[in-house]
Amino acid sequence: MQGWPELGCALWQLVVLVSFSQTEEPTCVQIGDPEIAQLSQDGDIVLGGIFYFHSKAFDYSLSLFYQLTCRPLVNLKSSLNFREFQFAQTMLFAIEEINNSTDLLPGVSLGYNIYDTCGSIPKTIKVALALNNENGNTSSNSDTPCTKPISHFATCACLSDKTKYPSFLRTIPSDYYQSRALAQLVKHFGWTWVGAVRTNDDYGNNGMATFTETAEQLGVCLEYSVSFFRTDPIEKIQKVIETIQASTSKVIVAFVSHLDMDVLIHEMSNYNLTGYQWVGSESWISDSQIAVVDKNHVLDGAIGVSIPNTHVSGLREFILDVRPLRSLNNDLYKEFWETLFSCKFKQEKSDENYRECTGQEDLTGVENSFTDMSLMPIFNNVYKGVYAVAHALHEILGCDETCNKNVQLDPLTVRCAEGEMSNITDAVTCVRCPPESWSNERRDACVKKEAVFLSYNEIMGILLTTAALFGTCVTAIVTIIFYRNRTTPLVRANNSELSFLLLFSLTLCFLCSLTFIGQPSKWSCMLRHTAFGITFVLCLSCVLGKTMVVLMAFKATLPGSSMMKWFGATQQRLSVLGFTIVQVIICILWLSISPPFPSKNFEEFKEKIILECALGSALGFWSVLGYIGLLAVLCFIFAFLARKLPDNFNEAKFITFSMLIFCAVWITFIPAYVSSPGNFSVAVEIFAILASTFGLLICIFIPKCYIMLLKPEKNTKKHMMGKGPPKTF
To answer: Where is the G-protein coupled receptors family 3 profile domain (predicted)?
Structure first.
């Protein structure tokens, strides 16, 4: 179950070969002899299968790819692989079922061409090309490829990359999940110091890479990680075993194919390697033949993951019913019969150690890898693969009572995925569009994405701008009212200097929200967050100063108290300046080290580009917000302490309420800001600025304006003093 071009258990593919009319097709000329299918049957539509019936008997020249051929078997000790023969039988079983079905592909017969790769990777590639090109023309001077869509059975996570393997489908999960599961399994048993062995191919290397990454995240350390391939020199395999012997870890994670495990187990029989805990991948952990060859019980107690067990009705009986094979004049079936029953047919008998085959043998009492049905889960994957192709063909052909055996097709098109395009008919691969483009509906061109940002022209931008300007105007009106009544007791009692400074800072808060609207630029990105941070700190510094004035004023009425001496007008100005300078320093550091900058967000929406301001330094942004939050909490605490002081008009009560609103807005802002996509996060930040600013303006100043305009009789020193002790500010 290894990835292409791995040849481990059950590497196979289905290729749809159909006839279609074409004109002026580029001529392709095959180099070398055509491949001959070991098993074949004619049909309206032919499915192709690749299996390695022989895992050792192959002979080829590496320099001449087109001359790859399997070596004819000349002795009884053949390398016939019963396991692969079972897979091929499963494919034939599914095809027979479909051909006998009246519901699926009625009137259309399926045939097959099944090839033997002999366990050779180059041979597998040659056979795959032969299948893809109907075993005909495979070389061309034209740029037009001679390939058609294929799908094959494998688990390598590398095959999930649709940009490289757009036509690949599978009926088994990717090794990505198995590798993570193995890491979780190792962690579950508390094994934190392990060794790793892998097949040196895509299956082993990709699987082990994912395992290693996950294991490190879980706190599992690898003492060593070694690789080998079954065709490596014996010295290299011995070196792998010596590495295991020299190690201190007693747990070995083996991400290897069953063929490679066979080789490793055979060589380990010469070493004393018992006492190790093996953790295996599905390729060998569920293979009963591995246990058979493990004569020294090296793998006793091995654990791992396997494909879930399943049952295909009638399949076991079909595979084990070998009687129909006797009448077939096929070299592969003849070899299968001789190997299965350990005999030789008379005309080929050359070794007196073997009895003569009669053709009447049966499986009664025979126990070997062919009669072992432990790989039924893999058989089921082959079975599902055939049916998947059949159902796809059924949909394509639109089969109903009008279907007939002479059905003809147009080439099948591989439709590009979203974000990809191809303007070549029947192309196998697609081209991914550039980041600033997206594929059109037809997937034959890339169109430029729409760039979006919070602008003054859209409804949300207009509403937020209107709210900001309205707040600015209201603040200006309040300032005028306070200025006209600056000599009255109500204005003077609440520290008129801080009140005017607070109104000025509130105006800046309303106006700074406008910097968040419009297309982001280098300067607007730096201005929006720093201006917001500094103006809000100035605002809260004034509120904190006013709250402390209320507390100090009442403390100053106690006999012998000199509180106001230590918090007079000069100290109030210095406190506001000091609090604000701290924020200015934070902003300067932020802008100096990693300032905000305009960026393009391609992730939130597939067909749009979000123009936004990246924070630069997230620490800088959250430091600015954190300092604002600190001052807000201090304001709330001081105001809360002063809320019950005797006074007919105690400003601390209103400051307390305004700080409750302020804190509620900004606590709600954080999750809303983080979870809002694209330019909605900007709108959320503007809303938080406006809501908190309106809260301060309304709670602190509107009650005073109400008295000054509608209840002037309460704007007197006598009313302000009430029954409480006399106060001076």
So the answer is: 460-724
Architecture of the domain delimited by 459-595+618-720: Up-down Bundle (1.20)
614-651 burial: b if 16+ Cβ within 10 Å, else e: bbbbeebeebbbebbbebbebbbebbbebbebebebbb
Closest CA relative to residue 478, chosen from 508, 503, 509, 502: 503
Rounded-to-integer distance, Cα 578 and Cα 564, Å? 19
* Buried-state track 310-335, b at ≥16 Cβ within 10 A, e below 16: eebeebeebbbebeebeeeeeebbbb
Confidence of residue 403 (pLDDT cuts 50, 70, 90): very low
Give 547-598 pLDDT, tens digit per residue.
Answer: 777 777 666 555 555 555 666 667 778 888 999 999 999 999 999 988 998 8
Looking at residue 494, its pLDDT comes to 64
Nearest to 470 by CA among 502, 500, 432, 514: 514
Q: Show Cβ contacts of residue 141 under 8 Å, excluding neighbours closer than 6 positions.
A: 26
Across all residues in the chain, what is the average pLDDT?
79
pLDDT given at position 553 = 64
Q: Please determine, for residue 545, whether its predicted confidence score (pLDDT) is greater than 50.
A: yes
- The per-residue pLDDT for range 429-464, each reduced to its tens digit, is 678 888 888 888 888 888 888 888 888 888 989 999
Instruction: Give the three-state DSSP class for 69.
Output: strand
Pairing of strands 221-228, 608-614: unpaired
With 0-12 CB in 10 A as exposed, 13-18 as middle and 19+ as buried, what is 98?
A: buried
Tokens found for residue 710 = 């509608």
Q: Is the backbone peptide bond immediately before 489 cis, with ω within 30 degrees of 0?
A: no
Q: Distance between CA 685 and CA 616 in Å, rounded?
A: 17
Identical topology for domains 33-57+78-133+148-172+311-344+369-409 and 175-304 = yes
Distance of alpha carbon 559 from alpha carbon 540, whole angstroms: 31
Helix (H) or strand (E) holding 228: strand 221-228
Higher pLDDT, 612 or 147: 612
Please report which confidence band the pLDDT of residue 122 belongs to, taking 50, 70 and 90 as the band edges.
Answer: confident
pLDDT tens per residue across span 64-91: 444 555 544 333 345 677 888 888 899 9
- Going by their DSSP bridges, the two strands 150-153 and 110-116 should be labelled as unpaired
pLDDT for 214 equals: 92
Does domain 33-57+78-133+148-172+311-344+369-409 fall under CATH 3.40.50.2300? My reply is yes
The closest of 247, 286, 202, 248 to 11, measured between CA atoms, is 202
Which one-letter amino acid corresponds to residue 12? W
Which DSSP string corresponds to 452-520?
Answer: E---SSSHHHHHHHHHHHHHHHHHHHHHHHHHHTTTSHHHHHT-HHHHHHHHHHHHHHHHHGGGGSSS-
Amino acid making up residue 14:
L
CB 639 within 8 A of CB 656: yes
Q: At what angle do helices 175-188 and 202-217 cross, to 10 degrees?
A: 40
Q: Where are the domains of the chain?
A: 33-57+78-133+148-172+311-344+369-409, 175-304, 413-443, 459-595+618-720
CA torsion, ordered 412, 417, 420, 425, to nearest 10 deg: 10
Q: Are 454 and 681 in contact (CB under 8 A)?
A: no
Q: Which CATH superfamily is domain 175-304 in?
A: Response regulator (3.40.50.2300)
CB atoms within 10 A of CB 74: 9
